[in-house]
Each structure stands twice: as structure tokens, then as C-alpha cells.
Design goal:
The structure is a homodimer. The first copy, chain A, has about 400 residues and is of the alpha/beta class. Chain A is built from 13 helices and 14 strands. In chain A, the strands form 4 sheets. A 7-stranded mixed beta sheet of chain A has the order 2-10-9-8-7-3-4, with helices on both faces.
Chain lengths: ~400, ~400
Amino acid sequence: MNAKTPFTPARRAERMNPSIIREILKVTEKPGIVSLAGGLPSADTFPVQAMREACTKVLRDAPREALQYAASEGFAPLREWVAAHLNEHQRMNVTAVQVLIPTGSQQGLDLAAKVLIDNDARVLVETPTYLGALQAFAPYEPTIVALASDHEGPLPDALAAAAGGARFAYLLPNFQNPTGHVYSEARRTAIVVAAQEQTLPLLEDNPYGDLWFDAPPPPSLASRWPEGVLYLGSFSKVLAPGLRLGYIVAPPALYPKLLQAKQAADLHTPIFNQRIVHEVIRNGFLDTHVPAIRARYKLHRDAMQTSLVKHLSGIAQWVTPVGGMFFWLELPAHIDAVALLPKAVEAGMAFVPGAAFYASAPRRNTLRLSFVTSPPQQIEAGIAALARVLKAAA
Amino acid sequence: MNAKTPFTPARRAERMNPSIIREILKVTEKPGIVSLAGGLPSADTFPVQAMREACTKVLRDAPREALQYAASEGFAPLREWVAAHLNEHQRMNVTAVQVLIPTGSQQGLDLAAKVLIDNDARVLVETPTYLGALQAFAPYEPTIVALASDHEGPLPDALAAAAGGARFAYLLPNFQNPTGHVYSEARRTAIVVAAQEQTLPLLEDNPYGDLWFDAPPPPSLASRWPEGVLYLGSFSKVLAPGLRLGYIVAPPALYPKLLQAKQAADLHTPIFNQRIVHEVIRNGFLDTHVPAIRARYKLHRDAMQTSLVKHLSGIAQWVTPVGGMFFWLELPAHIDAVALLPKAVEAGMAFVPGAAFYASAPRRNTLRLSFVTSPPQQIEAGIAALARVLKAAA
């Protein structure tokens, strides 16, 4: 801070930085650019008509309750819905008293970190991992340990070796942001066994799990070790992110402290939003809406896969994602994706360089492509433009 | 946490506690109880029709933008509105780039604490002070210093004496929760002079400032020392708390770190809510709505004042509030308001004991009464019931 201000920043403020992705998005999301950068759900999937009807109903039937202060835990019927949904789809066995509704699952990351991380305590993450989680954890001053990982997630041996004294491992088993990778059944079992042996709690983040294309991913980690896993879910990818609604499912021993952290952070999540979303989903809306999103996103995925094969075979390497929103490209070792980005924007497309997703030792020859934000017919133009700048840089 | 859980709480979690007020409200807000406890705005003031029209308009004209991810700073037109509003009503001179929209002003307290408080750093507060602020600050492990205060706010000499090395003083100049007190013009001047001399930054919290009855309070502290005051405002008391919208106005030197803390905490405040509220207020709605709230709350205040004079003269002492939502009662020295509460609930009314609002050395013979939640015709019954249990306890 400059010399004129009387404010002294806290030590933790030095660990806080602007989101590189958000800075990139400001530059790249201009008209005429095919953006494969932002992790924005397709706005074509937003349930606008259902939202209209729900707003009308909530403001007609319960306006006083929908606009007043409300419980920090969240709207009770929505918590019931979340528990029932997870018991049906994630083979979990939880009750509504374990469910807390945060202001988006990003807040779940903040609350978990607030309750669990002391300064200099170790936290284990995948390599690479979700940038927003690194940002949520940073103010609590942990020592982040990046676990050796392959296309099925972190290696169980690496997790076991790093577990001693760590506060938790942060894991994204389904269609991870940024890589799109999914843990196999065998990897899930091995991870949970290793964590249990080491008494290492897990923070399982599952914003993308419902977005599978051909078959659902194996059941959650939380279903395998209920008392050892703090689970996060989100309505951002199956309804709309602008409402900022997620959910936390906590082991009963951990719930009270998360609730106190929530009260202190913002009293409660907007009850207006909670009632509207509950109204939208209470009668099975997602049973048809989510399959429609899956079918749409699969077409997007196919369009990008076809374009990548056509334009980037032999130049970049990737594992075709079977769900979620992202391709993760490995470029020739000498190419720096950060340096490549301005040239790509000049050529008419944008991506996110991969380096920001590494807690340490960034691999600079990587990049993330979102296949859901731009329509399929634009995707090929974007990939073709990327191929041109890559070939020029080779 | 119990023996079965593998989770280890962070040290700061020991400082976090359930909100005593929220626990009280669960017990007391039953049918048949006249609740003068909760700080809930009157639901009769919620602009339901304007909300309906705004929802319709936003979901018709900008559904994709209202439901998508958005900027961490907040919705630009709403930030413009806030800056213009403060320049007109608080004699400030700020621009939209200094405005950040948090998920309720409670989140403003959390973000300010996150950016400014190191463990064991000193933070100065009024005596008594807003309980929610003590809860927001606690996870960052400050040493809270309670300043000697009278009915015009903290004593400038006390502030100056405690200022050395403190990170900030947290001040509520207008109709403070819980006491309803308002700083005089002279006190504001003296506080700001003392703070400037000591280079002590101020965190000014003003959720109630628009709710004056006969004359507006003197201008904000921020208007007197722009680079030294972080200012918080709220839409909860002039529109509706269930939307969770507040605003932070930060000196430019402090803004980037607050923004980074906001990104890490929950990415952004629900853009749906921001666009709806902007639609409601953009054409001068508050110019008629806020005066209507003032007139209504003044009638409530008058009803409670009349009832207190009738039933509690000579038993309790109070300063009649000239705005806001609360009376603060001082009872005879031997009466413990915490012990009195169950008897009051049995007699058919509820209040909030004052002890929770003290950072240290609680005065247990104090209590807070909200005059806005219950209708005027119920207020007398509530005060009469309070008088009965007080006389029985005397």
C-alpha cells in the first residue's frame, strides 16, 4: 500500500493475488474473439422460463419470508432436497442436518479453509488443481503440497507419503477443472484406503460430477468414508452460476464450526435465491434439465475433439474428457502458453495458460480450453486459430 | 471435535462461537410471543411489487447476463448508483471504482478483517458494539479493545489513548446496534481529529443511517477523512435483507486487497440480486420508499416510547432513539437480563440481553428492544409483559 494510507495490511494479505484467469478474461472476452478461456457454463442452458415462474410464485406465496433475514444453515426444504439428491445419485447416506448452503461452492472452500487451516499447516492438492481453491486457501497461510498426479488423479502413494500432519487433501474426482480428468473406481478406493490409514481428512469438490456424457462417474469419496470427507457441490453448472448457490455436506463433528464461520462471514446465503432454486427443482426439473445439458455439452465436446484431431494432431497431446467442461492440452516442451496467449488473441481466440493451476513447479507448456462457452460452430474456428499460432511458434 | 473425526480444527476455530442472538431467536420467535428481540426490518416495508416488476424485467431483458458469472467488483451500474447516492447523502466524494458490492455488509466486515487483522493485533470497538462485527473479527484472532463510550459514541480521549499500534477502530456513528445512539457533529469532529493525529484508520459501519426520524444525522466520518476511513453500507434496512446486498467504499490504496479477498471468498455477489436491486432503485424509488419507512418506524418508536414511559418509568433508563431500530434499556444494577429472559418469554415477550454486545466486562443489567419487527399495537403488550417480570424480579 502506498505511503498516503494509514491502513496496514495483515500479513495474510501478501499471500492474496488477483485471479490470473479473471485478469485474462477482461482482456480476451471482447467481441470477435472465440473465447475458449472462461469456465462459463453455456447461457443457452439457463432455465430462464422456470426462473420466471419460480420468481412469480415465491413473490406471490412467500414474499415476506423470501425477503427477510433467514437461517445461517440455509433454507430447510433445499437442504432436504440436497440430502435426498446425494443419497440417490452419489450413493451417500446423509441427512439435511449435515447440509449447509453457502454462497456458491467457492464459499465452501473459504469456510473449510477458515475452520481447518492454521498458518504453515500443510494442505495437499492435485497437480494441477483448481485455481480458485488455491486462492481460497491462501489467506489462511497454509503450506501447499502438490501431489504427483496422473490422468486418474493423485497417486495414492504420493498422498500417503505426504499425509503426516497435513490438515486435508483437496480432491476433485470428477472432470477436474482444469484437466477434465476423472478418478477411476480403483483410484477412488486406493485414495480412500490411503487417507484412512493415514487419518488424512479429504475435502471433496464436485461441481462437475453431474455433467457426464456416456456413463456416470463412480460414486463419491464421501460415500466411502462419511466421517472423513467434507463434500462440496454446486448449482452453478446445472442451473446458473449468477445465483451463487452451492452446498456443503459436513460430518456432524465438523458442522457446528462451519456454521459459525458462515454466520460470521455473511449471516446467511440469500434466502430469495434459495427459495427460487428450490421452487425450480422441487418437482424433478433437473431430471430432464441435466440430461439436456449433458447432451448439449457432449456435442460441444465432440466438436472440439474433432477440431483438435483435425488441427492439432502431432502438435498437442490431450486425454479426451468424458464429462465436465474442459480439455487440457500439453504443448511441445519449448512452448510457453503464457507467451502464446497474446498471439492467440491477435489470431482471434483465447485460452487459459495452464501455469496458474500449479501450486508449485508450473508446467508452462499446458493450456486449458473450455468447450461449453462458445457454440460448436465457433469452436473449430478457435482451434484452427490456435493451430496457426502454435505452428508459427514451433 | 469428538474422538471419531479425523478433522483437526484450526486454532482460530476456538475463537468462533454460535451467535447468542441467533440461538435466542430460535427459542423466542414462537407464535404468541411478542418478539422485540430480533433486529428484523418490518416485512411490511419490503417492496414486493417493485421486486416483481424488476424480476420480470431483468429476466426478460438480460437473462443470460443475470444468471452468468460476473465481476467480483459488483454490477457496474449499481456501483455507480452507490457512489452517486453517497456523494448526495453522506457528503462524500467517491467514484464507482472505490465501490465493491459484498454479499451483505456483514461480508464487508469479514473482508475488512481478513485484509487488516493479524492475530493478536489490536482492534478498537465501541462499548457496547455490534455483536456481528465481534463475530466477523474473531476468526482473525485480534485483541479487541473496548473504548469507554457514552450516548454520543466512544470518547475521543479513550480512542487516542488506545490508538497506538491498533489496526483500526470499528465505529457505528448512526443509530448503533444495539444502543440506538448517534454521534453528534462535535463528537464526529473530535473522533476524526484524534484518529488522524494517531494515524488510526477507521472502519465506519452505517446500516441504519437512512432511518432517521426528524433530521438526518451529521455527515459520515468517511466524508471527513476519505483516505483513512473504510465505509460500509447496506440495502438490508432500506429494501430487504433476504437479498444480501451491501456496499464497501474503500480508499483506493486498500481496494485491490479487498477485491482479492472477495474473489477468494465467493467469486462475486449474486449478479441476479444486484441487477434486480438496481432495477428497483435506478429511477428514484428510494426517494419515496425510504421516507415511508422512516414515517412507519417513527410510529413504532413512538409506540414503544409511550409504552416504556407508561410501564417502566423509574424502573429502567433509556435514551430515546432518534432513528434506527432499537431501544437500549439499563435495568436496576442487581438485575441480570440473561436470567430475566426465560421469565419474559413465559410472560409472552422476548428481548435480547445486552451482555453479548460487550467485547469485555459485560453490563448484565442491559437489554435491547427492537421496535420495528412487531406492529405498534403489539408493542405495548410486550412492554407491559416486560414490566411485570421486571417488577417481580425487583
